[in-house]
Amino acid sequence: MAKDAKVQSKNETFVADETETLVESRPASRGVWRSRIKLHARHLSRSTQFVIAAALILGLTMFFVGKLVSARIERAAVQSAAEAGAHYMEAFLEPYVQEMSRDNGLSPNSIKSLDRLMDSRSLKRHIVSIKIWRADGTVVYSTDKSITNRQFPMDEIADALKGNVVTDLEDLDQEENEFERKLNVPLYEIYAPLREFNTRKIIAVGEFYEKAESLEQEINRVRQQVWLVVGTATLAMLTLLFFLVRRGDQIIQRQQVSLRLRLLEQTRLHVSNAALHRKINTATQEFSRINELTLRRIGADLHDGPAQLLTLILIRLDDLAEHCTTLDQESLETIRGAATDALREVRDLSRGLALPEINDLTLTQELQLVAERHEQRTGSKVQLNIATLPDSAPLPVKLCLYRFVQETLNNAYRHAQGKGQTIIASHEEGTLRITVRDTGPGMAADAMVVDGHGRNRLGLAGLRYRVESLGGVFSIQSSPGSGTSVSARLRV
Prior knowledge:
Layout: H1 2-43, H2 46-93, H3 100-103, H4 108-118, H5 121-124, E1 127-133, E2 139-142, H6 158-161, E3 166-168, H7 178-181, E4 187-195, E5 202-211, H8 213-304, H9 306-321, H10 326-353, H11 363-378, E6 383-386, H12 395-416, E7 422-428, E8 431-438, H13 458-468, E9 473-478, E10 484-491
Parallel strand pairs: 6-7
Antiparallel strand pairs: 1-2, 1-5, 3-4, 4-5, 7-8, 8-10, 9-10
């Protein structure tokens, strides 16, 4: 029993797994089909997609319109034929049913007269069967004698008893239609109210079955005409819409091709500009490096050339001073003073052009170094307001930073006598901002651009070019009596 239970549980598990796999595979297959349909639809042109969608929507709409119109026409044709047939049969049947207002039935003579009427050839060409119904649903006369005096449901004669002509093309599946079914011909039945001559009161309902071949042919012909008109109109609208959409689609395609060409050209120009930008950056960095080397060489040449010659002049002047008169001593002192000043300036220039080794320094240490050297050289005080800065930066940025602060401090010392010299440095969201301020007399607006001879100030222009060559932003804020503030922003 235990083994059987285990086998049964395994079978149930297998069946459950298989069922789940089948259930899961169906949505997967549906998803595959949907993806395939979407893939094929994407490869179709817009005009084709529009025509397919319009054909579905317009086709369904016109189909329902055609069905509605056909049904209305068929109903109208049948009702018209029924009205004509009803008036025709009322003229034949009403004289024989007048006695039903008194006897509630037909006499044998009336039945024989109706039978002779049905044997008429002219009538048989159209009418195949007649029934006369009493108000309670009893058949008092019928071509099929087997249903005479039998009572049937009153669903079909209820409207006729209200004075309406009722007609329908039907399948003749009711019990009282067995005789008509055996004829195997298309028929439509008409229920017409039969009235008393004097009071026009409905005393019976006449039912007759008329051959429907000609009526069906007429209905089919009208239906074909309706569908032909509907189909032609639908096809014409689809064709017109297709050409309109196709024209718009062609315009869109031409615009897309033009946009693609422009996009390719823009992409090519962007790549070219990026390459040029990289070359410019490389050239800028190389220029900065060469410029620093040139400045160092000039500083070295000044130190090794004019500075040494001026030192030699001072030594020779000391030798000559021992053999000169008092008048000559005064001249020698003047020459010695001039040579000493010249030597000091040459050494200052040499020291300023010779940039210290800053590769291993952080940005904070670099700013502290340039401030310290400026204080040693000028004897002025520099205040530092430095926030947290990155420890490392590219060498061109370090060189630009050193020269920017060095030149702005020199300008502050030269034009503001070193009053309120302050270095402010901060770093936010990858942008390094350096500002050097003083509290001197400031500058006029035109003085920040042009000097008295109509030439750009070389110091400020050099700073601007140096900062902007690295993609930075250079700015000056100054007005008479409020000091000067020079700022630089660089991406780090």
